[in-house]
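Slide 14.
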Amino acid sequence: MTRTLPILVATACLLALSISTPRAQQPEKPTCAVLTFDARAGVSTPEAQMLSDRFATEFDRLGRYTIVARSRMREVLEEQQFQATDHCSAAACAVEAGQLLGVRYMVYGTIGQLGQLYSINSFMVDVETGAQIRSATSDLRGGIEEALTELMARNASELLGLKPPAASTQAYFNILLTPNHARLILNNREIRPGLVPVEPNRNHTIAATLSGYHPYSLQRRVTPGVTESIDIRLSRHEKESTTRREERPRKMRTVYVSPRIGGSMATGLAGLEIQYKHFALSAGAIPHGPAGGVRWYFRQDRSSWFLGVCGLHLERDDSYGRWTDVETETMVGLIAGYRWRSLRGWEFTLGSGIGALEREIRYTRTTRRRFGRRWIWTYHEETDTESEVIPTFELAFGYAF
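Slide 15: predicted structure.
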């Protein structure tokens, strides 16, 4: 009993001392703010702001610093009329922003893209001393999705010297399909276009089919953590009849000869066009004169747009007793339009344009006067000339040999 009494007294004293003494407060975490990273080649300003917001979230999640909310940071910097607003890529600029915010540390950096590789450089600076105390550089091959979900967390951990989170082993195909209602098959499984998760490091077969289009098929292998974009564009079948052999597409020729009828300022009411590759020469006849022209077809065969020059020359002779009128018209103009040509060679041409018309009218008057026993004939001639701008047109049918 005598031995245990001193021990009980000492224990009671220590217990009373621990109750009366206030619990020691935990040390407060230093304050820090994250500026918007500067956008370099391949990264837009909105993307840089989004990635910087994600970096600040991942940096705060590590629990080493008290992070100033980015919305609050923008308000303070705008009130202080900070020239760089909320982003900069120099230590002096970051120190100035940190002094305005009243924090101990500032984080700034740059982010850019080269091909499918995203690269981020981040720096931490001590606002009081202006010294750079930490830096980190991280790279990731993939799309903007992987940069947001993986690269920001990895760089935040590396900036603090921590072990970065394990890289994602998932891979993706970002498939674009034209037409988008075609049937899309991945490894014998029908899927929809868009972002599709796939197993990395193995061959994947992608196929697309649609009635009236050529089938499409390819194989792709993708590495872990990468999103590969695949743009699939189906091409149409050439129109071909299985019932009429003559309607099958003909081989492209160099020379075409096309008789035509209709109304045209290049071939008249009836004419002929000879085409050599893209260049064509036409000639025809209309009442009181010839017509002709040259033109250029943008496609050598089949249907095509065209651009050309046309012209005509008319001459009419009218007599009214002692009056004789000779009217001459000459027109040169431009014409553009479209020539539709079927698989069998039938053609329909429609075009319009503008031309300059020169009209000349010669009036000749014959008079007779008697002089003694003889009659004397006299001739009086007048010429009237006028010019005007008129529309040109073409509406013709033909067949190409």
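Speaker note: Helices lie at 4-20, 45-61, 70-79, 91-101, 144-159.
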